[in-house]
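Weekly structure sync - notes
Attendees: PM, LS, DV (DV joined late)
Agenda: review two folding runs queued last week.

Item 1: First target. Sequence and structure tokens pasted below for the record.
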Amino acid sequence: MALTTCSPAAYGRVAVLFGGDSAEREVSLRSGAAVLNALIQAGVDAFGFDTAERQITELIDEKVDRVLIMLHGRGGEDGSMQGALQQLKIPYTGSGVLGSALAMDKVHSKQIWQCLNIPTAKYEIAMKSRFEAGSCGAIMNKLGGKVMVKPAREGSSIGMAKVTSAKQLATAIEDAFKYDNTVLLEQYIEGPEFTVAVVQGQALPSIRMSTPHIFYDYSAKYQDNTTEYFCPSGLSDEDEQHLASLCALAFEALSATGWGRVDVMQDKQTGEFFLLEANTVPGMTEKSLVPKAAAAAGVSFTELVLAILATSME
């Protein structure tokens, strides 16, 4: 796979934004450290910038030419940082304000996909301002008896739960309200989970995840060595091509650009794929999925980082 990169000098002085104060701070610090190390080893004039410890306006004093965003979650992946950088007239990697904001919001993502007939699981929405626990029985029936509860604007599976009863649903919703005033209630799809990275408009090979956990949660992603990753994922050539096209279309539908990742479930009965969510600043740690997919396509970690940085040149 051929990705566009530039000579190290062409990027100029680069700030890698990481850390921040979202619930995903620890993952962001690890992603940022890995990316920064790769840039320095490649000869790029790069330095780290923790937005929880420094004011964004200090980037002007640092005379940066561009920014590589490694901030996961709110404040870095939701459009707010992108808007601030645009006001400062500093080029940055990945999606713009609109794409970042839409992809960060699981509810709005699903509504857009639904309008475009892009397959996504059935869902309901719980709003903190008007949630009634008495509605949980009807919701469970409507969504098939097994439901995933997700804060609308969190990542890394933070605040998520799988429930199988109305009582569990009410408790999980209240727990999710600790992270967000809007909570997505999604029909649980029985079958394998896949993820597809999109870099510079190209879909990388899909990855299938397998975990002994109830679902692919925070621990399975970042802490547990029992999680297995399959790339190639075991799909037929036809299904692999279909999934790649579907994820590229879903990513573009949210006005997402540059690079990112789309998560998908496959119904084990019908074989149909259902979109879960898109990520515009996915993890880049040693356990992260985008580097695994890049390696399967013959792209090294350093090449991948340079290609991501190149998205700031557009």
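Item 2: Second target, run right after the first with the same settings.
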Amino acid sequence: MKIMLVEDDEGLAGEISSFLTKWGYDTDIAKRYDDILQDFAECKPHLVLMDINLPYYDGFYWCRQIRQISAVPILYISSRNDDKDKIMAMAQGGDDYVEKPFRLDLLRAKIEAMLRRTYEYKVKEQLLIKPGLCFEPVSHILVYEGKEVELTRSERRILARLTECRPDVVTREDLMMELWNTDEYVSDGTLTTVISRLRAKVKAACGEDIVGTKKGQGYFIV
């Protein structure tokens, strides 16, 4: 799921973005505070995190603008704690409100609840890798647009490890440890072969390569 973050405090925006990325969300921080609507149109998010105090126009204004073209859920994140502001936020089309400072775990819980309500998206059962491409961590099944992508046990283990550590790089040594838990003979060449097969199968299914290489370190989900 893609989340657009409209927060002009660069430190807080970076902290929220890093946290959500580790939980498998694709985050996009707004850059043009004089034209948030243009950023929104380019991002095409599934959810918007909206601050109220912003340069040029406030969050209430941009919420109204977004509501004219989209019903995407909007979650306000603001230091304003007056009930009038909360009422105004909802009146302008917002779906929920979190007061600053807040715990990141609370923010994630709010986001997951809103996504479940809006998209019937099972956050704990599926991890969205790319639009239409989901991985089920428990069953290790990869699905593209409702159809399972056939993978070997080794390919499933590698993908599970990569998605678990996303967006961090997983070393070749760690991935070989995963393969040692299968019945296959494992060598450095075996890992290269498994990664190559996995890439080919996923690209054939969705047209994209989801496994990136960090030279001299390992692999990661792009």
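Discussion on item 2: The chain has two domains: 2-119, 127-221.
Action: LS to circulate a short write-up before next sync.
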